[in-house]
Design a protein that fits this description.
Layout: E1 10-15, H1 19-30, E2 35-41, H2 44-54, E3 58-62, H3 70-79, E4 85-90, H4 95-103, E5 108-111, H5 116-127, E6 132-133, H6 138-149, H7 162-172, H8 177-184, H9 188-202, H10 207-217
Parallel strand pairs: 1-2, 1-3, 3-4, 4-5, 5-6
Helix pairs in contact: 2-3, 6-10, 7-9, 7-10, 8-9
Length: 225
């Protein structure tokens, strides 16, 4: 099912193999004035094709699907050059699933037991460039990151430049590269280079890990350099 695009609305593709759930989400989004569903499908392969063709603002992707699971679909989407925000939508609150999704390029991880109004709000936040994670997973992510930092080599901000520190704090606020570029009045490509460098220096693999670490360590409470 494909609907006519309106530029002022955030465009969304739903990839989930449960027809009733897809229909419910479509109806939820149709009630929102600033969002619309471009397409919905129960096939991961079809979803990947639609994402490449339609270039939506946001993709809501189920984790557990037949033939191609959500993590593999996520990797294929990124390999195809899809730059849309991708949010995993699942019943699984297992640490390994959450971490695997975020490390594979997801921009969020939401659980299916949330209230409809909360889901609509989270989708809106995700579509406008913010990372979204179900509230009860925050502690789980912090613990996973703490375990990772117990290794000899871990996050270290001592080598970050002044600009990289500014960007780290903005990532912790949930801002996308585009929004960071606007805040700092620089090119988005410049922000991407800084993000790549700070991830390498901190030995972290995703923006979400940076955000969780920064909040946990209180970096966001420090004044901007």
């Amino acid at each position: 099912m494909i609907n006519k695009t309106q530029d002022h609305k955030a465009s969304i593709i739903i990839i989930d193999d449960h027809p009733l759930l897809r229909r419910g989400i479509v109806q939820l989004i149709e009630d929102e004035e600033d969002m619309e569903v471009l397409a919905e499908t129960g096939s991961a392969a079809e979803g990947i094709r639609l994402a490449v063709e339609l270039d939506p603002d946001l993709i809501l992707l189920d984790l557990n699907m037949p033939e191609i699971n959500g993590i593999e679909a996520l990797k294929q989407l990124r390999a195809e050059g899809v730059c849309s925000r991708i949010v995993m939508f699942t019943v699984s609150d297992h640490e390994e699933d959450v971490v695997a999704a975020l490390k594979s390029g997801a921009d969020g991880y939401l659980l299916k037991d949330m209230e409809p109004e909360e889901l609509a709000g989270q989708l809106r936040q995700a579509a406008t460039g913010r990372m979204v994670v179900s509230e009860r997973l925050t502690v789980l992510l912090a613990e996973a990151l703490r375990n990772q930092r117990s290794r000899p080599a871990g996050p270290d901000i001592s080598s970050l430049t002044t600009r990289e520190m500014q960007i780290l704090r903005l990532i912790a606020e949930g801002l996308s590269n585009k929004m960071i570029a606007r805040r700092l009045d620089v090119m988005e490509g410049t922000v991407k280079v800084h993000v790549k460098n700070l991830l390498k220096k901190m030995q972290l693999r995703s923006r979400v890990e940076v955000a969780v670490w920064a909040v946990q360590e209180g970096v966001t409470r420090h004044p901007n350099p």
